[in-house]
């Protein structure tokens, strides 16, 4: 190839190099974010951080906070404020004023929520959870729920295996809690949270199916019937003893682990935080990941879940745009490497660009 021909090709190669550099530079941020998400698949904290870096814009933050305020959910609004503080985002003065009004109303409803939680066990909020836990620790709440499910069966209605399993396991853990001087209280309280979420219709369908299967395998229905009969006679002690015997040996392990994880979430994210997790988690492993996330992010957990959904707990795959960015970046880098190699051959040979001679 002649020197003239080599010089004629030089502008083309320079233009190609510039184009590849531009493609690599523009695709790299999205490609890096995609790779970062994939690398964090087993770490819920890193996964959530990577997801928020991509999605939590000021507009998204404001919209999420606005949605919480419009729904009257002061706890979620507070969670967005906590998340915003970690990312340099703040509410507008108008939003701050509306939150102050919600805080004032929240205190007024606490007594009513406690009573509703004790009697029915299906209300949200910290006061309602305290009432539900008080009922379950005495045995009243779990026996009540078993009685209600038995009545459904007598009427020919479909019974809820999840509630039956959680109530039976809860009674067994309540007895163990008293004998262990409170050592099992976290697991006991966690099961109350899960049962309340189920009764309120807040368990995800996959998680409900998993718990239903676990409950069916864990509970001896004949022995359980004896407990329900004792409850019908208002013999709470006999009912509790019979139900405890209805739990098959070794069956409490899974329920205890779930209860402990739910309690860990409650300590950092509150009762509503637990329900948000149970609404998206599909199995016990994902609830455990949520407990790790709550331990690290505390009050911001609900806002993270509201923003990312189940994507805060598990890697759901890369978007089409992210995949395209990864391939574009790799292609550009490969092209630049080939051009650099050719340029190196040219310099090493001391020849004009190309294989020809002058």
How would you characterize this protein structure?
- The protein is mainly alpha-helical and 358 residues long.
- The chain folds into 2 domains: 1-40 and 315-358; 113-280, no CATH class.
- 78% of the residues lie in helices and 0% in strands.
- It has 17 helices and no strands.
- The protein has helices spanning 3-39, 44-55, 58-70, 74-86, 93-108, 110-120, 126-137, 140-154, 161-179, 185-199, 205-218, 221-232, 236-246, 252-280, 284-297, 301-308, 320-349.
- Mean pLDDT is 78; it is low at 1-5 and 353-358.
Give the tags:
17 helices, disordered N terminus, mainly alpha
Shape: elongated
Helix percent band: over 70%
Can you tell me the number of structural domains?
2
Mean pLDDT: 78
Strand proportion, as a percent range, falls in under 5%
Largest sheet: none
Q: How do the helices and strands follow one another from N- to C-terminus?
A: HHHHHHHHHHHHHHHHH
Structural class of the helices, strands and pairings?
A: mainly alpha
Number of helices: 17
Q: Termini, distance in Å? A: 6 Å
Number of strands: 0
Rg, Å, rounded: 29 Å
Low-confidence sequence ranges? 1-5, 353-358
């Amino acid at each position: 190839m002649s020197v003239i021909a080599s010089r004629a090709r030089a502008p083309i190669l320079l233009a190609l190099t510039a184009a590849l550099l531009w493609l690599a530079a523009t695709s790299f941020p999205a490609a890096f974010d995609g790779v970062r998400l994939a690398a964090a698949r087993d770490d819920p904290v890193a996964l959530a951080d990577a997801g928020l870096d991509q999605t939590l814009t000021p507009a998204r933050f404001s919209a999420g906070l606005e949605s919480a305020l419009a729904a009257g959910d002061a706890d979620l609004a507070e969670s967005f404020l906590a998340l915003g503080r970690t990312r340099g985002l703040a509410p507008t003065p108008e939003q701050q004023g509306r939150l102050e009004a919600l805080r004032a109303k929240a205190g007024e409803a606490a007594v009513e929520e406690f009573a509703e939680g004790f009697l029915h066990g299906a209300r949200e909020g910290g006061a309602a959870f305290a009432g539900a836990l008080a009922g379950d620790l005495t045995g009243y709440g779990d026996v009540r729920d078993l009685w209600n499910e038995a009545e459904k069966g007598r009427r020919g209605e479909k019974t809820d295996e999840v509630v039956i399993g959680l109530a039976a396991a809860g009674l067994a853990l309540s007895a163990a809690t008293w004998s262990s001087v409170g050592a099992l209280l976290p697991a006991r309280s966690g099961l109350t949270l899960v049962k309340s979420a189920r009764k309120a219709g807040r368990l995800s369908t996959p998680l409900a199916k998993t718990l239903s299967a676990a409950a069916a395998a864990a509970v001896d229905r004949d022995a359980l019937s004896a407990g329900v009969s004792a409850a019908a006679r208002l013999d709470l002690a006999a009912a509790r003893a019979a139900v405890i015997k209805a739990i098959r040996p070794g069956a409490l392990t899974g329920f205890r682990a779930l209860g402990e994880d739910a309690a860990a979430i409650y300590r950092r994210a509150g009762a509503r935080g637990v329900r948000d997790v149970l609404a998206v988690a599909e199995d016990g492993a994902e609830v455990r990941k949520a407990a790790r996330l709550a331990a690290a992010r505390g009050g911001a957990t609900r806002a993270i879940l509201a923003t990312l959904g189940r994507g805060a707990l598990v890697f759901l795959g890369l978007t089409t745009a992210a995949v395209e960015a990864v391939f574009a970046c790799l292609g550009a880098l490969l092209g630049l490497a080939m051009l650099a190699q050719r340029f190196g051959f040219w310099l090493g040979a001391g020849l004009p660009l190309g294989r020809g001679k002058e």
